[in-house]
């Protein structure tokens, strides 16, 4: 066991990443934010988002005190927005229950919204050098290959075996360096499609390499056909502004600003009347598909060019926003919303 960790640490000393933004002037807060952003997102994508986020929300209190809209605005484009909502909720709990200081106890950390066992272990080990194993996607790949543990890591039995191995291999000393090294190794030499086994520091004991079955591990998630859904998104336009509404806090694009939708084009007139829109010209924009983890959504956008100012609609106006394309508001936007705003900026439009 010690030979494995010794080789990993030696490799880290020579090749590990030590100058990522969240590794400089490291705090529990900076590590926590980075770990949440890095869930299902590559380092190269995260870095600019992390830098902007930390420039605006410099500490836990500033994050906790900020409006949710602004937090989601700084997350726009990263996806998986529940991460941002949970980060904001957890910051408020830390502000209110722990005087704004990130808690030291594992049980306290793992109880926070959006923090699971591996994330809690990562923050406490990397920032506070506590002895905790981690098991993110990169570590799962390294360990499943090293011991040739078959099956999809999302299955409880497989995950349990990987946790047991992770705990057995985690050294008592230099835990922060070891955990960082395991994540780095999985992100570089032990990559999913092109592992560089010759350069791996633990290749001599790797069962997958010794049997030339690297690509069999970890096992793939069982594939299933994603259902296809359809929607029509309405983009009422008046004097350079587009009507948005704030979606419910939970569910699809929870808490983000997006467009009103109908299931069929025949329902556009009724929705327009409900929104207080009378005279308008309809322009079909290019349809596109947006894929979620559990279904494909086919979107038909309709631009409603208003010929008269909007009336007071029957919907809750406090949940509405006329979004000025020339002076964008600091609010969180759903991915199709951002995409369609980009399309509008390139589309010749009539003057209202």
TrEMBL record:
Family annotation (CDD domains): ENDO3c, NUDIX_DNA_Glycosylase_C-MutY
SUPFAM superfamilies: DNA-glycosylase, Nudix
Organism: Lacimicrobium alkaliphilum
UniProt xrefs under InterPro entries: A/G_AdeGlyc_MutY (IPR005760), DNA_glycosylase (IPR011257), Endonuclease-III-like_CS2 (IPR004036), HhH-GPD_domain (IPR003265), HhH_base_excis_C (IPR023170), HhH_motif (IPR000445), MIG/MutY (IPR044298), MutY_C (IPR029119)
The protein's name in its UniProt record: Adenine DNA glycosylase
EC top class named in words: hydrolase
Coiled coil: none
SMART domains: ENDO3c
Similarity comment: Belongs to the Nth/MutY family.
Pfam short name (any one): HhH-GPD
Any GO BP annotation: mismatch repair
EC number(s) reported in the record: 3.2.2.31
Reactions performed catalytically: Hydrolyzes free adenine bases from 7,8-dihydro-8-oxoguanine:adenine mismatched double-stranded DNA, leaving an apurinic site
Ranges of residues in domain HhH-GPD: 37-188
UniProt-recorded Gene Ontology molecular function terms: 4 iron, 4 sulfur cluster binding; 8-oxo-7,8-dihydroguanine DNA N-glycosylase activity; adenine/guanine mispair binding; metal ion binding; oxidized purine DNA binding; purine-specific mismatch base pair DNA N-glycosylase activity
Function summary: Adenine glycosylase active on G-A mispairs. MutY also corrects error-prone DNA synthesis past GO lesions which are due to the oxidatively damaged form of guanine: 7,8-dihydro-8-oxoguanine (8-oxo-dGTP).
Bilayer-spanning residue ranges: none
């Amino acid at each position: 066991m010690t030979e494995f960790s010794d080789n990993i640490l030696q490799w880290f000393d020579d090749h590990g990443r030590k100058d990522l933004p969240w590794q400089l002037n490291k705090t529990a807060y900076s590590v926590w934010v980075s770990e949440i952003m890095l869930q299902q997102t590559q380092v190269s994508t995260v870095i600019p988002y992390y830098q902007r986020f930390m420039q605006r929300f410099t500490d836990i209190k500033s994050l906790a005190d900020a409006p949710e809209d602004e937090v989601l605005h700084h997350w726009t484009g990263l996806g998986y927005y529940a991460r941002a909502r949970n980060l904001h909720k957890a910051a408020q709990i830390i502000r209110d229950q722990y005087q704004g200081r990130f808690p030291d106890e594992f049980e306290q950390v793992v109880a926070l919204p959006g923090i699971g066992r591996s994330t809690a272990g990562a923050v406490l080990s990397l920032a506070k050098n506590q002895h905790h194993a981690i098991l993110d996607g990169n570590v799962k790949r390294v360990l499943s290959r090293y011991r040739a543990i078959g099956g999809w890591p999302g299955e409880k039995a497989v995950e349990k075996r990987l946790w047991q191995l992770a705990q057995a291999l985690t050294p008592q000393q230099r835990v922060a360096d070891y955990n960082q090294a395991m994540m780095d190794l999985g992100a570089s030499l032990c990559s999913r499609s092109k592992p560089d086994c010759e350069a791996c520091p633990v290749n001599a004991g790797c069962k997958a390499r010794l049997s030339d079955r690297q690509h069999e591990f970890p096992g793939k998630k069982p594939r299933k056909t994603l259902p296809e859904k359809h929607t029509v998104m309405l983009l009422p336009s008046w004097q350079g502004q587009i009507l948005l509404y704030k979606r419910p806090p939970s569910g699809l694009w929870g808490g983000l600003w997006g467009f009103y939708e109908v299931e069929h084009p025949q329902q556009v007139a009724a929705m327009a009347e409900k929104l207080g829109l009378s005279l308008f010209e309809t322009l079909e924009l290019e349809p596109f598909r947006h894929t979620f983890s559990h279904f494909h959504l086919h979107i038909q956008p309709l631009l409603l060019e208003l010929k008269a100012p909007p009336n007071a609609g029957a919907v809750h106006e406090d949940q509405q926003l006329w979004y000025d394309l020339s002076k964008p508001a600091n609010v969180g936007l759903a991915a199709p919303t951002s995409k369609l705003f980009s399309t509008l900026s390139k589309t010749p439009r009539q003057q209202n």
